[in-house]
Structure prediction request, 220 residues.
Amino acid sequence: MTPATTAAPRAVRVDSAGLTLNGDLSVPADARGLVVFAHGSGSSRHSARNRAVAEALNHGRLATLLLDLLTDAEERRDAITAALRFDIPLLGDRVVGAIDWTRNQPTISPLPIGLFGASTGAAAALLAAASRPAAVRAVVSRGGRPDLAEGAFDAVTAPTLLIVGGHDEVVIELNRQAFERLRGPKALEIVPGATHLFEEPGALDEVARLAREWFERHLA
Prediction:
């Protein structure tokens, strides 16, 4: 397949859960789906790892929305307390709000939606998938904590892919437990030799490949 010509990301303001959040939206020509990113553990839309994955998705004709789930004031407070990054219901509501926002944007409203969650953002993505089952068609978790969304497992119907580094032993076990409890279509992929942040040569490329194939399969 010929790679898509990607558009430069443009800054957007996303109305979500009564707040306005900062986002970066990239829509390649002939986009066939939209992936909303849920960052976690003190990260933001500027995450180099998630941006690398987003670029790979763009080349697969998938639009991406990288979103700050906290306001600027909340991020400053969270940098001191580290409390909001673990407030999964709050983060999940923000992702739901972003999904609803996309449905009112003419350029992307027709596109089927996938969610990509990293770290605690994976739990937020699963909560959002449970809240919007008709809208969310696929979920991917990178080094995520899906166990933090255990109350939503029965309601997640979207095909869910859990990706974990082979050396991330504690998170592997948490993902295995979550995998057993998820009721919908699912897969668990362990990237050999990778640690939690997938910093090893080729590890993040493998994450991007797996995510792209999953979204291409389920958003087409």
Remarks:
- The radius of gyration is 16 Å.
